[in-house]
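Data deposition worksheet. Section B asks for the primary sequence of the deposited chain exactly as it was used as input, without tags or linkers unless they were present during the calculation. Section C holds the resulting structure in token form. Section D is free text for depositor observations; keep each observation to a single sentence. Incomplete worksheets are returned to the depositor.
Section A, Depositor: J.P.
Section B:
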Amino acid sequence: MPGRRRTLPMETGKTMKTIPTPVKNVLIVGGGTAGWLTAAFLARTLGADAGPGAGGDSVRITLVESKEIGIIGVGEGTFPSIRGTLAAIGIDEARFIRECNATFKQGIKFTDWVRPPGTPGNDHYFHPFSLPSQRPGGPELLPYWLQGAAPAGVGFAAAATMQKRVADAAHAPKRFNDADFMGPLNYAYHFDAGKFAALLSTHAQSLGVRHVLATVERVSLDEQGAIGAVHTREAGELTADLYIDCTGFRAALIGDALGTPFRNINDTLFVDRALAMQVPYDTADAPIPSYTIATAHEAGWTWDIGLHQRRGIGYVYSSRHTDDTRAEQVLRAYIGKASDGLNPRQLKLNVGYREQHWVKNCVAVGLSGGFLEPLESSGIGLIETAAYLVSYLFPHDGDMAPVAKVFNEMMKARYERIVDFVKLHYCLTQRRDNAFWTDNTDPASIPESLRDKLAMWRRRAPHRMDFVVDLEMYPPSSWQYVLYGMEYPTAQYANASTLPRFEEARREFQMIEQMSHRALADLPTHRALIDHFLQRGERKIA
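Section C:
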């Protein structure tokens, strides 16, 4: 049976030694983005055994999914790591944009998060993906921005990068002739989740992944308490040496079969419902925003994502602070007349994660392992991380215990840090216009690890030494953009000796502003770049 160990006598002939069975057969249960991205990454990095003639060191990778179970995605946002993942699995950028209705994402615009609508002061801030400008040998700009070296009233993101001005003008992060996945500004994508899963399925199968269409009816354990087999309606019993659970919130293997505990974190992150609509543009040539628009409302926030032919709009909210009827009213009020005749799709969100993602011969990837709400697009980033770790920690010799330990430690730490980062957006609000925002500022809802960071940052700016980079999804700059976008008051200790390059920093801020105007002239509009990629794809087909 898969997952069992062979017991052989040692040289003494008296002591029995257990040696694991090598892992040659992987079964991924569930499709969607989690299943097919994992399948493609494993096939590309391990070499999929597609049958007779395959190399002796390759691994047989099979994905089983049901026709009856749809995917949860309603239009997805990503983090810039997705570019490296697409390149690693061998999907070119034009194909991805053409087949997934994809557009470029340069960051997130947060509207009404700091204070209620109509209140004096800035009504939005921007989290760009480009790092703060720093020339070789030049000063780090954040401490000098805090000391007033930038033009008055200019937020940190606009002062330290060109990206906000470029994105606000609906321009693209790259030019027509830039290489795939390259450009002068950092970026990710928006795309249609269903189409992305379909592309990944086609591509993974071209890499040698076997596809089985069947509905899983039950999962049985072996005598050691590991997964012994997956029993399907159409294909009978399926067995493997390693099972990867991509069954979404159902968690059929890691949860139902193995009983691995799930840690609910609704006491920290309150949103647990979502309503989503697909909304057409007013005109076929309407500008496409190259960022996610996240607008705060009375009991949550709306996402607004521009794809080729439509917008994906949804309201993420807390069922403890509103009801479904009121939530739909808020969503329709945000969309306006374009929502007339459209029916929203409702999603119930299980916010939290498992502290053990790898148990015996089973690994959870995607929603079966955890979900931390859509803000900052952590979902696909966590899938990428898990697929990467499974691939490079892969237990070829079958000894899974040490690999599982490392995997679980790294995934748990990453979830904890994302929870802190997401909570940062909520807990610093100045809004006191309703219970949702007031409750988010309650210290009891803020993780101790985040409270400690905020205490340090009252007297100094965040520094890269505050972060363990291998465990972070978001770089230090992302924390800085959000922290000061939310107008956190850092009264840093500073004098002439601690900030000796004030004039140099001031000139750098001026240079960034001048360069941003040149960038607008150099970079095409977002829609023009998308049209270019679509035409490029059509030429390849022809």
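Section D:
The longest helix spans residues 400-427.
Confidence is low (pLDDT under 50) at residues 7-13.
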